[in-house]
Write a structure and sequence with these properties.
The complex is a heterodimer of chains A (253) and B (253). Chain A is α/β, with parallel strands linked by helices and 253 residues long. Helix content of chain A is 34%, strand content 21%. Chain B has one domain: Orthogonal Bundle (MetI-like fold). Helices cover 80% and strands 0% of the residues of chain B. Chain B has ten helices and no strands. In chain B, helix 3 packs across helix 9, helix 5 packs across helix 6 and helix 9 packs antiparallel against helix 10. The longest helix of chain B is centred in the C-terminal third of the chain and has 38 residues. Classes of the chains: A alpha/beta (253), B mainly alpha (253). At the A-B interface, strand 5, helix 4 and helix 6 of A face helix 7 and helix 8 of B.
């Protein structure tokens, strides 16, 4: 298997600072005055119930959603996040008229750049879908499709990766495998993972925030011991689950 | 033999049987309703004449279909891509549909003469709106998540149109073309009724004036066969070309 060195090219992952984030549907703010720091080269998880605004926060960092007037999203080195962010959603959004390789290289195609087929094939191989390179998306299982979507995200080779519940539509075993794969392939990048699954957050997160309340705020982060991906049965993962579930439930009152 | 192939044959045979029964039982004169056999005889005897007129009508339909689909596609794309075009053109298009297009036939003949020009224009006019509306609608309905992904890949609007929106809209566009294929013969024949020296519609008007009802029926039969064949041929081609449908690309299954 190729090492990460050949698969990623321009890694110099910055930290990200979000300050005074505000987003409102009409008059009711989902969150207001929210601050968050994503540490450089590490996984930050934001855990919260559906509709709390965690996807909106992620979209704001991705530059897809504009915040309030005071909202500032910037990298730790002072530059903007534009052009340094790759985005992966819950649904794979593979284009049904393109085969696996063409889907994986969609970004270059959209920008009118030359397609790096060697790198695409190496990444597909590393993601365990090298055999399916010429298959059409509708021939693949849900897990394989999400693997291709992960490769497509990696092909962007951005230092910051934002993931919005990318594994939540998968069955438990496939989800565990994909979590391990994501940690391996996204090493050294600054990652924000938004999820509603405490186990997923505890397996993957260097820092885990619970997003709760209305307008929503972030609590103090939980920093489980050990490197991701953690075993599902590790002591910190088990005790962390109890704490996270308690915090989620408290916010729901 | 496969029942699904047998079914149309049985339906046709049944209809002819009903037709023959009505003629035999009521003893209706041949200039009101000719028997199936005399219509068949007319087709055989006037074969050359019918073929000549059918050829003219077919050219009118084909040209009308081509022009209508091209112009409809162009305006659908323009409306989706340029906001001012959408704001100014869409109301005009909707209001124009309040004008009964067939009422324009005499005016078209006055302007474009008795040749095929006025019939092609007629067919083009009635095809234009359904094609425009179908493609515009398809282009508008691109998944928001897919557009988010394309934007984080720094895709320009034209690249998104070309690589994402247009292919995604193809099934809707195909529905528009199917409707166009079904209505194009109507446009051509109405144009011929109003004023033409050749074409199946013109032949029917002449035959009617001379009470040659069997020739009228023969022309009608040829027209029906032509229209149905055209529709299924276009449907087949579209199915071959567009193998993706909106529902098959969902990953929720």
């Amino acid at each position: 298997m190729p090492t990460n060195g050949t698969l990623s090219q321009n890694l110099n992952a910055p930290s990200i600072e979000v300050s005074n984030a505000r987003f409102a549907y009409g008059a009711r703010p989902l969150f207001d005055g929210l601050n968050l720091v994503l540490e450089a080269g590490r996984w930050t998880c934001v855990l919260g119930p559906s509709g709390v605004g965690k996807s909106s926060l992620l979209r704001m960092i991705a530059g897809l959603l504009s915040g309030g007037n005071d909202t500032v999203v910037r990298c730790g080195d002072g530059s903007a996040t534009a052009g340094r962010v790759a985005y992966m959603a819950q649904r794979d959004f593979l284009l049904p008229w393109l085969n696996v390789v063409d889907n994986a290289t969609l970004g270059a195609r959209l920008r009118g750049e030359a397609v790096d087929l060697d790198r695409a094939n190496a990444l597909l191989e590393a993601a365990g879908v090298g055999e399916a390179a010429n298959a059409m998306p509708d021939e693949l299982s849900g897990g394989m499709r999400q693997r291709v979507a992960l490769v497509r995200t990696l092909m962007e080779d951005r230092p910051i990766v934002l993931m919005d519940e990318p594994f939540s539509a998968l069955d438990a075993i496939t989800r565990l495998k994909l979590q391990d794969l994501a940690v391996r392939l996204l090493a050294d990048r600054t990652v924000l993972l938004v999820t509603h699954d405490p186990l997923e957050a505890l397996r993957l997160g260097d820092r885990i925030f619970v997003m709760n309340g209305s307008p929503a705020g972030l609590g103090s982060p939980l920093e489980p011991a050990g490197r991701p991906p953690r075993e599902a049965g590790a002591p910190d993962v088990l005790s962390g689950q109890a704490r996270l579930l308690r915090e989620l439930a408290e916010g729901g009152k | 033999m496969n029942p699904s192939y047998l079914r149309p044959v049985i339906i046709c045979a049944g209809l002819v049987a009903v037709w023959q029964t009505i003629v035999s039982v009521t003893g209706v004169p041949a200039f009101i309703l000719p028997a199936p056999y005399s219509v068949l005889l007319a087709i055989v005897e006037d074969g050359g004449l019918l073929a000549g007129h059918a050829g003219v009508t077919f050219i009118e339909i084909a040209l009308g279909l081509l022009l209508g689909v091209l112009l409809g596609a162009a305006s659908g794309i323009a409306m989706s891509f340029f906001v001012p075009v959408r704001r100014w053109l869409f109301p005009v298009l909707v209001v124009s549909q309040a004008v009964p297009v067939f009422a324009l036939a005499p005016i078209l003949v006055l302007w474009l003469g008795f040749g095929i020009g006025s019939k092609v224009a007629m067919a083009t006019l009635i095809i234009f709106f359904p094609v425009t509306a179908a493609l515009y609608d398809g282009l508008r309905r691109t998944e928001p998540g897919l557009l988010d992904m394309a934007r984080t890949m720094d895709a320009g609007r034209f690249a998104i149109l070309r690589h994402v929106r247009l292919p995604m809209a193809m099934p809707a566009f195909a529905s528009g073309i199917r409707i166009a294929a079904a209505v194009a013969p109507i446009g051509a024949v109405v144009g011929e009724w109003v004023g033409a020296s050749s074409g199946l519609g013109a032949l029917m008007i002449h035959a009617n004036a001379r009470s040659e009802t069997d020739t009228m029926f023969a022309a009608l039969f040829i027209l029906a066969v032509m229209a149905v064949t055209l529709y299924f041929a276009i449907d087949l081609v579209l199915r071959r070309l567009i193998t993706w449908q909106p529902e098959t690309y969902s990953s929720d299954d």
